[in-house]
Automatic annotation (TrEMBL):
This is LVIVD repeat-containing protein. It comes from Maribacter confluentis. It comes from the Bacteria. Pfam families: LVIVD.
Length: 422
């Protein structure tokens, strides 16, 4: 065999060796979850402690003279806000796997790795645990609220028993895989997905707290509604200390937030906004949906308009960021009216003619919406990172970058009242 034939033979052989029946191969970063037994892990997950520094500030919640700030996946900080000019941290409730809370009549409901946990906060200096309902929520995915997703090309979850296993970390290795296997994960029919909010029907408004637009928990009357990745979890809380689990309602995919206007629920998801009727609070009925490009999607509603911020990039998707104003006067046929570009919006809120938008690193933006769907910016607080807001009767709460901001309403404008480094 002469040298030219030998070279050709070796080239062909190399091609065949680098490709099997599965097609070409490449090197990919493959991530696998590190598991721990849920029973032993949860046994140490709850504690009531003295104030500690925040690790990663999340959502904010207001109840009476208190503010509760979520420390993502770790619990929540309790702040005495009797004097808004000088708020004071008074406790930290350690609650592993926590992202959301909601409060009615001094009973605080919170999530913890899929469990629904109930606390008595009637004596804020002696908060006590009342009950815990195992695996009552978030049953359709791997919920890892205190574990950051690693940078990887492929995520392999293996055989996870959602009732027994908790994901406490990730192992990432470079491995050679077929391109076909890599591309298969983007076929969402086969995905095993994992992902680590005022008008109400309540007769006693001051007995129920208020969350921001990013909340997954919502108390309406004698019911607690909790959204997870695809379901609306419903609890009868007529007996505040012993909630009853009702039948879940599948509402869509990538659901992130919940907001209500009267007997209508507006659910924000990465694929769109979903509208449900809760005249029968135990059996929500689908009315319609508004679809948009993939993006993180909190929603608030005031009158005949829904205000939706879409955040593109990263885990949120590829849609350009913006504020969508949608006419919901006909609930069966929501209609997009206008899009305002934003840099990286998160939560938002409304009060009267004012619309507040947390535009990430671009700060807090305040708009006059009296001529909606046309809006006009009236204030812009720059050089801060804005995450979520709660418009209260006399002040505005805003959380961002491990800092709690409070603003006071002054005529048609707002002014900074205080800041609290968390």
């Amino acid at each position: 065999m002469n040298s030219k034939i030998l070279i050709v033979f070796l080239v062909v052989l190399a091609v065949f060796c680098s490709c099997d029946n599965d097609g070409p191969y490449e090197d990919y970063l493959v991530a696998r979850p590190i598991l721990k037994n849920a029973v032993s892990f949860k046994a140490e997950a709850i504690d009531i402690m003295e104030p500690i520094p925040v690790v990663s500030s999340g959502k904010v919640y207001a109840y009476k003279n208190y503010i509760f700030v979520n420390d993502v996946g770790l619990g929540f900080h309790v702040i005495d806000n009797s004097s808004p000019q000088n708020p004071e941290r008074i406790a930290f409730i350690k609650l592993e796997g926590n992202n959301d809370i909601s409060i009615k009549d001094d009973k605080l409901y919170a999530d913890s790795y899929g469990d629904l946990v109930v606390f008595n906060i009637s004596d804020i200096s002696a908060i006590s645990l009342i009950s815990k309902m195992e695996n009552a929520i978030y049953n359709n995915g791997v919920w890892m609220t205190n574990v950051t997703f690693p940078q990887a090309d492929i995520y392999e979850y293996g055989d996870i028993d959602y009732d027994k296993d908790i994901v406490v970390g990730w192992e990432v290795n470079m491995e050679r895989r077929s391109v076909a296997d890599y591309e298969k994960q983007f076929n969402c029919d086969n995905c095993d997905l994992a992902f680590v909010s005022e008008n109400t029907l309540n007769s006693q408004q001051d007995a129920v707290g208020q969350g921001g637009s990013l909340a997954r928990f919502k108390i309406i009357g004698d019911y607690l509604y909790v959204v997870d990745y695809s379901d609306l979890n419903i609890f009868d809380i007529a007996d505040l200390e012993q909630p009853k689990v009702l039948e879940d309602v599948q509402v869509g995919w990538d659901i992130e937030t919940i907001f209500n206007q009267g007997e209508i629920l507006f659910l924000g998801g990465r694929q769109g906004m979903y509208i449900y009727d809760i005249k029968d609070p135990e059996k929500p009925e689908f009315i319609s949906e508004f679809r948009h490009g993939t993006a993180c999607d909190p929603v608030v509603v005031d009158g005949t308009y829904a205000y939706v911020t879409l955040k593109g990039g990263n885990m949120c998707g590829g849609t350009e960021s913006g504020l969508y104003i949608i006419d919901v006067s006909n609930l069966k046929n929501p209609e997009l009216k206008v899009i305002y570009p934003m840099e990286g919006p998160n939560g938002l809120g409304v009060k009267g003619d004012q619309l507040f938008i947390c535009d990430g690193g671009a700060g807090l933006k305040v708009y006059d919406k009296s001529n909606a769907p046309n809006i006009t910016m009236v204030s812009h607080f720059k050089d801060i990172v804005a995450y979520d807001v709660i418009p209260l009767s006399s002040s505005l709460l805003m959380i961002g970058d491990q800092t709690l901001y409070q603003y006071e309403y002054v005529d048609s404008d707002i002014k900074l009242l205080s800041t609290l480094e968390l």
